[in-house]
Amino acid sequence: MERGPEEVVLRAVRLPEDMPGLFDRIEAFGPARLGCGDASCRIEVDARWCRVPASARRLALVAADSPQCLPARLEADPRRWARGFALEMLSPRGAVWRRLQFHDVCGQTVLTLEWRSPVPTLAWESLLACGSEGLAWTAPTGFDAHPAAGVPVDPAWRQGCDIEVLHQILNEARLQRLALQAEVGGEAARLQIGFMPEQVALCMRRRRLTVRGEARLWQLDEMRLARLELVGHASARGLHQRLELGGPGGELLARLGPAASAGRGDPCGWRLALQQALN
After folding, report:
1. Which of 36, 136, 170, 226 shows the greatest Cβ crowding within 10 Å of its Cβ?
2. What tens digit of pLDDT does each residue of 254-274 get?
3. Selecting from 1.20.1260.10, 3.30.40.230, 3.40.1570.10, 3.40.630.30, what CATH number does the domain 157-278 have?
4. Strand partners of residue 61
5. DSSP states along 121-150
6. What angle separates helix 163-176 from helix 268-278, to the nearest 10 degrees?
Protein backbone atom coordinates (compact mmCIF):
# COMPACT_ATOMS: atom_id res chain seq x y z
CA MET A 1 0.00 0.00 0.00
CA GLU A 2 1.66 3.21 -1.12
CA ARG A 3 0.77 6.40 0.72
CA GLY A 4 -2.41 7.94 -0.66
CA PRO A 5 -2.40 11.47 -2.10
CA GLU A 6 -4.54 12.81 0.78
CA GLU A 7 -2.57 11.16 3.60
CA VAL A 8 -0.19 13.45 5.48
CA VAL A 9 2.82 11.94 7.27
CA LEU A 10 3.02 13.38 10.77
CA ARG A 11 5.98 11.36 11.97
CA ALA A 12 8.47 8.99 10.34
CA VAL A 13 10.92 6.80 12.22
CA ARG A 14 13.42 4.54 10.49
CA LEU A 15 13.57 1.16 12.20
CA PRO A 16 16.95 -0.47 12.95
CA GLU A 17 17.98 -3.19 10.51
CA ASP A 18 18.20 -5.82 13.24
CA MET A 19 15.25 -5.46 15.58
CA PRO A 20 14.65 -8.80 17.32
CA GLY A 21 11.25 -9.23 18.87
CA LEU A 22 9.55 -6.59 16.70
CA PHE A 23 6.86 -9.01 15.51
CA ASP A 24 6.64 -11.00 18.73
CA ARG A 25 4.38 -8.30 20.18
CA ILE A 26 2.41 -7.58 17.01
CA GLU A 27 -0.82 -9.12 18.34
CA ALA A 28 -0.87 -6.65 21.23
CA PHE A 29 -1.43 -3.76 18.80
CA GLY A 30 -4.82 -5.15 17.79
CA PRO A 31 -6.34 -5.86 14.34
CA ALA A 32 -4.26 -4.55 11.44
CA ARG A 33 -4.45 -4.29 7.68
CA LEU A 34 -1.55 -6.30 6.27
CA GLY A 35 -0.58 -5.57 2.68
CA CYS A 36 1.81 -7.61 0.55
CA GLY A 37 2.97 -7.09 -3.03
CA ASP A 38 3.82 -4.03 -5.09
CA ALA A 39 1.94 -1.58 -7.30
CA SER A 40 1.46 -4.26 -9.97
CA CYS A 41 -0.28 -6.81 -7.78
CA ARG A 42 -1.21 -6.43 -4.14
CA ILE A 43 -3.38 -8.15 -1.54
CA GLU A 44 -4.56 -6.59 1.72
CA VAL A 45 -6.11 -8.50 4.62
CA ASP A 46 -7.76 -7.10 7.74
CA ALA A 47 -7.12 -9.42 10.68
CA ARG A 48 -5.55 -9.87 14.10
CA TRP A 49 -2.06 -11.06 13.24
CA CYS A 50 0.18 -13.18 15.42
CA ARG A 51 3.63 -14.66 14.96
CA VAL A 52 4.03 -18.43 14.60
CA PRO A 53 7.19 -20.60 14.46
CA ALA A 54 9.16 -20.50 11.21
CA SER A 55 12.52 -21.72 9.94
CA ALA A 56 15.68 -19.99 11.11
CA ARG A 57 15.82 -16.22 10.55
CA ARG A 58 12.47 -16.16 8.77
CA LEU A 59 9.17 -14.60 9.77
CA ALA A 60 5.71 -16.16 9.70
CA LEU A 61 2.47 -14.39 10.63
CA VAL A 62 -1.05 -15.84 10.54
CA ALA A 63 -4.47 -14.22 10.73
CA ALA A 64 -5.58 -15.56 14.10
CA ASP A 65 -9.24 -14.62 13.64
CA SER A 66 -9.74 -15.90 10.07
CA PRO A 67 -12.07 -18.87 9.49
CA GLN A 68 -10.25 -22.19 9.19
CA CYS A 69 -11.53 -22.60 5.63
CA LEU A 70 -10.15 -19.16 4.61
CA PRO A 71 -6.71 -18.86 6.20
CA ALA A 72 -4.16 -16.11 5.64
CA ARG A 73 -0.42 -16.61 6.19
CA LEU A 74 2.60 -14.41 5.57
CA GLU A 75 6.07 -15.89 5.02
CA ALA A 76 8.93 -13.39 4.88
CA ASP A 77 12.71 -13.15 4.94
CA PRO A 78 13.67 -9.93 6.77
CA ARG A 79 17.25 -10.32 5.50
CA ARG A 80 15.95 -9.23 2.09
CA TRP A 81 14.42 -6.02 3.45
CA ALA A 82 16.53 -2.95 2.84
CA ARG A 83 14.63 -0.42 4.94
CA GLY A 84 11.83 -0.36 7.50
CA PHE A 85 9.82 2.60 8.77
CA ALA A 86 7.22 3.34 11.42
CA LEU A 87 4.85 6.06 10.24
CA GLU A 88 2.12 8.14 11.81
CA MET A 89 -0.25 9.62 9.25
CA LEU A 90 -3.23 11.93 9.21
CA SER A 91 -6.07 10.33 7.26
CA PRO A 92 -8.35 12.33 4.93
CA ARG A 93 -10.96 12.36 7.73
CA GLY A 94 -8.54 13.61 10.36
CA ALA A 95 -7.83 10.32 12.15
CA VAL A 96 -4.29 9.24 13.03
CA TRP A 97 -3.22 6.00 11.34
CA ARG A 98 -0.08 4.07 12.26
CA ARG A 99 1.90 1.92 9.87
CA LEU A 100 4.95 -0.30 9.70
CA GLN A 101 6.36 -0.26 6.17
CA PHE A 102 9.20 -2.34 4.72
CA HIS A 103 11.02 -1.92 1.40
CA ASP A 104 13.17 -4.17 -0.76
CA VAL A 105 16.45 -3.27 -2.46
CA CYS A 106 14.62 -1.56 -5.34
CA GLY A 107 12.67 0.72 -3.03
CA GLN A 108 9.40 -1.15 -3.58
CA THR A 109 7.09 -1.51 -0.60
CA VAL A 110 6.90 -5.27 -0.03
CA LEU A 111 5.06 -5.38 3.29
CA THR A 112 2.89 -3.02 5.34
CA LEU A 113 1.00 -3.35 8.60
CA GLU A 114 -1.45 -0.54 9.22
CA TRP A 115 -3.61 0.26 12.24
CA ARG A 116 -6.51 2.60 11.62
CA SER A 117 -7.89 2.20 15.14
CA PRO A 118 -6.09 3.42 18.27
CA VAL A 119 -3.21 1.22 19.46
CA PRO A 120 -1.68 0.97 22.96
CA THR A 121 0.25 4.22 23.32
CA LEU A 122 3.05 2.84 25.49
CA ALA A 123 3.73 -0.09 23.15
CA TRP A 124 3.81 2.17 20.07
CA GLU A 125 6.07 4.76 21.69
CA SER A 126 8.43 1.99 22.82
CA LEU A 127 8.61 0.83 19.21
CA LEU A 128 9.39 4.33 17.94
CA ALA A 129 12.07 4.81 20.58
CA CYS A 130 14.10 2.03 18.97
CA GLY A 131 14.40 3.88 15.65
CA SER A 132 15.86 7.07 14.22
CA GLU A 133 13.36 9.88 13.83
CA GLY A 134 13.55 12.09 10.77
CA LEU A 135 12.15 15.57 10.24
CA ALA A 136 11.02 14.95 6.65
CA TRP A 137 9.65 11.89 4.91
CA THR A 138 10.32 10.86 1.32
CA ALA A 139 9.46 7.44 -0.05
CA PRO A 140 12.57 5.32 -0.79
CA THR A 141 13.48 4.90 -4.45
CA GLY A 142 16.30 2.34 -4.42
CA PHE A 143 19.21 1.00 -2.44
CA ASP A 144 22.63 -0.45 -3.16
CA ALA A 145 22.14 -4.20 -2.87
CA HIS A 146 21.65 -7.25 -5.05
CA PRO A 147 18.11 -8.31 -5.97
CA ALA A 148 16.80 -11.65 -4.81
CA ALA A 149 16.86 -14.57 -7.22
CA GLY A 150 13.56 -16.09 -8.34
CA VAL A 151 12.38 -19.54 -7.32
CA PRO A 152 12.44 -22.01 -10.25
CA VAL A 153 9.22 -23.83 -11.08
CA ASP A 154 9.08 -27.14 -12.94
CA PRO A 155 5.45 -27.78 -13.90
CA ALA A 156 4.23 -30.71 -15.96
CA TRP A 157 2.81 -28.35 -18.58
CA ARG A 158 1.91 -24.72 -19.27
CA GLN A 159 -0.83 -23.16 -21.38
CA GLY A 160 -1.00 -19.47 -22.25
CA CYS A 161 -4.32 -17.78 -21.47
CA ASP A 162 -6.11 -14.54 -22.28
CA ILE A 163 -6.86 -12.07 -19.51
CA GLU A 164 -10.55 -12.75 -20.00
CA VAL A 165 -9.96 -16.23 -18.57
CA LEU A 166 -9.02 -14.66 -15.25
CA HIS A 167 -12.09 -12.42 -15.30
CA GLN A 168 -14.42 -15.33 -16.07
CA ILE A 169 -12.95 -17.58 -13.37
CA LEU A 170 -13.24 -14.89 -10.70
CA ASN A 171 -16.83 -14.11 -11.67
CA GLU A 172 -17.74 -17.80 -11.76
CA ALA A 173 -16.21 -18.24 -8.31
CA ARG A 174 -18.29 -15.29 -7.10
CA LEU A 175 -21.50 -16.76 -8.48
CA GLN A 176 -20.82 -20.29 -7.22
CA ARG A 177 -19.36 -19.19 -3.84
CA LEU A 178 -16.20 -21.10 -4.70
CA ALA A 179 -13.35 -20.79 -2.21
CA LEU A 180 -10.07 -19.78 -3.88
CA GLN A 181 -6.47 -19.49 -2.80
CA ALA A 182 -4.25 -16.63 -3.95
CA GLU A 183 -0.56 -15.97 -3.41
CA VAL A 184 1.37 -12.75 -4.04
CA GLY A 185 4.85 -11.45 -3.28
CA GLY A 186 8.36 -12.80 -3.60
CA GLU A 187 11.31 -13.87 -1.51
CA ALA A 188 11.19 -10.75 0.65
CA ALA A 189 7.55 -11.33 1.65
CA ARG A 190 4.91 -13.73 0.35
CA LEU A 191 1.25 -13.75 1.40
CA GLN A 192 -1.10 -16.68 0.83
CA ILE A 193 -4.82 -16.31 1.51
CA GLY A 194 -8.05 -18.20 1.13
CA PHE A 195 -11.03 -16.13 0.02
CA MET A 196 -14.43 -16.16 -1.66
CA PRO A 197 -14.84 -13.36 -4.22
CA GLU A 198 -17.81 -11.15 -3.36
CA GLN A 199 -17.15 -8.34 -5.84
CA VAL A 200 -15.12 -8.36 -9.07
CA ALA A 201 -14.68 -4.95 -10.73
CA LEU A 202 -12.53 -3.80 -13.64
CA CYS A 203 -11.71 -0.15 -14.26
CA MET A 204 -11.61 -0.12 -18.07
CA ARG A 205 -9.79 3.21 -18.33
CA ARG A 206 -6.93 2.23 -16.01
CA ARG A 207 -7.20 -1.56 -16.63
CA ARG A 208 -7.12 -2.13 -12.88
CA LEU A 209 -8.84 -5.23 -11.52
CA THR A 210 -10.23 -5.15 -7.98
CA VAL A 211 -11.45 -8.30 -6.21
CA ARG A 212 -13.09 -8.03 -2.81
CA GLY A 213 -13.88 -10.76 -0.30
CA GLU A 214 -14.56 -10.83 3.41
CA ALA A 215 -11.78 -8.68 4.97
CA ARG A 216 -9.73 -9.20 1.78
CA LEU A 217 -8.80 -6.94 -1.12
CA TRP A 218 -6.81 -7.94 -4.21
CA GLN A 219 -5.76 -5.30 -6.75
CA LEU A 220 -4.08 -6.07 -10.07
CA ASP A 221 -2.73 -3.57 -12.60
CA GLU A 222 -3.42 -5.35 -15.88
CA MET A 223 -1.23 -2.86 -17.76
CA ARG A 224 1.79 -4.45 -16.03
CA LEU A 225 0.67 -8.02 -16.64
CA ALA A 226 2.99 -9.61 -19.23
CA ARG A 227 1.82 -13.23 -19.09
CA LEU A 228 -1.05 -15.35 -17.83
CA GLU A 229 -0.57 -19.11 -17.88
CA LEU A 230 -2.46 -22.16 -16.70
CA VAL A 231 0.12 -24.40 -15.02
CA GLY A 232 -0.59 -28.07 -14.38
CA HIS A 233 0.98 -30.53 -11.96
CA ALA A 234 0.07 -34.20 -11.60
CA SER A 235 0.50 -35.99 -8.30
CA ALA A 236 -0.69 -39.12 -6.53
CA ARG A 237 -3.54 -37.01 -5.13
CA GLY A 238 -4.75 -35.97 -8.58
CA LEU A 239 -4.39 -33.08 -11.02
CA HIS A 240 -3.54 -29.58 -9.75
CA GLN A 241 -4.06 -26.59 -12.05
CA ARG A 242 -3.17 -23.02 -11.13
CA LEU A 243 -3.18 -19.67 -12.91
CA GLU A 244 0.16 -17.87 -12.81
CA LEU A 245 0.41 -14.12 -13.44
CA GLY A 246 3.79 -12.80 -14.55
CA GLY A 247 5.29 -9.33 -14.82
CA PRO A 248 7.29 -7.71 -17.64
CA GLY A 249 10.61 -8.77 -16.09
CA GLY A 250 9.63 -12.43 -15.91
CA GLU A 251 8.80 -12.20 -12.20
CA LEU A 252 5.86 -14.08 -10.73
CA LEU A 253 3.23 -11.58 -9.59
CA ALA A 254 0.58 -13.96 -8.30
CA ARG A 255 -0.71 -17.52 -8.29
CA LEU A 256 -4.43 -18.39 -8.17
CA GLY A 257 -6.12 -21.72 -7.58
CA PRO A 258 -8.76 -23.47 -5.51
CA ALA A 259 -8.66 -23.43 -1.72
CA ALA A 260 -6.32 -26.11 -0.40
CA SER A 261 -7.88 -29.53 0.07
CA ALA A 262 -5.68 -31.95 2.00
CA GLY A 263 -5.07 -35.27 0.30
CA ARG A 264 -7.08 -34.48 -2.85
CA GLY A 265 -6.75 -33.13 -6.34
CA ASP A 266 -8.57 -30.04 -7.57
CA PRO A 267 -12.27 -29.78 -6.58
CA CYS A 268 -14.96 -30.14 -9.22
CA GLY A 269 -16.05 -26.50 -8.96
CA TRP A 270 -12.57 -25.24 -9.88
CA ARG A 271 -12.21 -27.67 -12.78
CA LEU A 272 -15.64 -26.68 -14.10
CA ALA A 273 -14.80 -22.96 -13.84
CA LEU A 274 -11.58 -23.57 -15.80
CA GLN A 275 -13.38 -25.59 -18.46
CA GLN A 276 -16.04 -22.93 -18.99
CA ALA A 277 -13.46 -20.13 -19.17
CA LEU A 278 -11.16 -21.91 -21.62
CA ASN A 279 -13.87 -23.10 -24.00
Report:
1. 36
2. 999 999 765 567 889 999 999
3. 3.40.1570.10
4. 51, 74
5. HHHHHHHHHTSEEESS-------SSPPPPP
6. 140
